[in-house]
Structure formats: structure tokens, C-alpha cells
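Kindly inspect this chain:
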Amino acid sequence: MERTGRIHKLLIALLFAVAMFALSAVEADAAAPVAVDSGTTQWNNGLEYIVGSDVTIDSPVEVNGSVRLTFMKGAKLTAEHGIHVPDGAKLRIEGTGALIDKADSGNAGIGAAGKDTGGSVIICKNTASNVTVTAQGGYGAAGIGGSHSKDYYGSVEIGGGRVIAIGGGGAAGIGSGYGCDCYGSITISGGTVSASSSLNNAGNGGTGIGSGATGSLYSSITIRGGEVTAEGGAHSAGIGSGYMANASGATINISGGTVTATGKDDAAGIGGGEEGDWPFYDG
């Protein structure tokens, strides 16, 4: 019996040693946060990227998988050529600082580029976060959302902070690009959001939130809180669809917050663009 007891104790000790070795290996392999510098252009799956000072990146940034971008107090990141969040990728932005982003022609400030349909962008989901995000799309592309080349199927979620989104050349401030339909979801539950569109070569603008010029809206737009100002470009709705497009397939639900939506020319403040349809909205 005594021998059996010693063997039992030895087995327990051995199992404990193996467990501790495995735990230490996991801890050693756990990825440490990555400090962002001017050469940090590939943001890889499962990692947290920390902006701790004023940094300028002069090349396009690529988000690979699920990534968290955290700002230390007072830090600023300037992305001179956009942040590409492709199909299946997710970018979550938290902390207290400032992101200034401007994309190349045809690409969203934050979101899709080229012929992809866009991933997921989350801004200040943590209520303690207060990042100021300024995102300007390249010609024909959204400030946050879709590119000029493909319909937008991604998602945008804003829970706080301050967001200024400007669509380039007929694109939506938040939503799809010029000539592209918007199928993605847009949810705002807090913060201060200003979304607008600049004119394309034909003199038409996109919506503040929704689809670009000549692009229809088939997605859901939900506003549950925050202070939202959405201004459409020429002939486009403030929230809804662009010029010569419709919003009949969309769901627009406003249940909280303060919303100011202005359409231009004969477009609705909330609803369809000029020469498009004019549906009612929920709210």
C-alpha cells in the first residue's frame, strides 16, 4: 500500500509538472502588443496594435484577420493611403487619441479596396474609449465602407468617440462607393458622427450614410444613440440612397440619439435620392 501511495504521488507530481510546462509554453507564445511605427503596414490576425505617439504611415495598411487598434492618450496616427479592411477581416478601434486617414483613388478611407466587398469596422465599442476618427475616401469610395469597384457587404459599428467620414467623388460618407449598392449593415449607438459626400465628375454626390450616387440601399441602418449629422451630396439623401437610386429594400431604424439628416436638391432627408423612390422609415 505504501509503495502504491508513493507511485500515486509521483504520478500527480509528474502531471502537475507537465501542466505547468504547457502553461508556460502558452504564456511564452502569447503575442505581445505591437507598437505602431511608420513601417507597420501589415496588421495581422489576433494582434493588438498600440499607437503610443504621433505616427505617420506613408503606405497602404492591410488588415489581415481580426485586429485591435488601441490609442494611448493624446497619440495620433496618420494613414496617408488608407486602411484596407477586406472581406472577412475585422478592425476594432479603441482608446483615446486620433486617427486621420485618407485613401487613394477608388479605395475607402477605412474599409474596402479594389474589388473586395469590405470587412467589419468597429469604433469605440468600449464606452470608456474616445477616439477621434477622420476618414476620407479616395475618388468614388466611401470614407468608411465600400470601394468604387464593388457593392458593399461589410459592416460599420460606432459606439462612441467622434467620427468624421467623407465620401470621395460621389460615394457615401459611411456606406458604399459611387455607382455601388450598399448591402452592409451600419449601426450607431453613441458618439458624435458627421458623415458627408463630395461631388463626382458628373456633379453628383452620395449620401451621408447609405449608398453612393446611382447606388441603391438594401442594407439595415440602425441609430440607437449619439449625435448624428448626415448630409447628402447633390441629388442624394442624407440617410438612404443616392441619386437615381432607391431605398425600397432597406431598413432604416432610428430609436434614439439626435439625428439631423439633410438631402440635397429633391432628395429626401431620410429615404430615397432624387429620381429614386421615397420610402418611409422606422422611427
Remarks:
- Helices lie at 2-29.
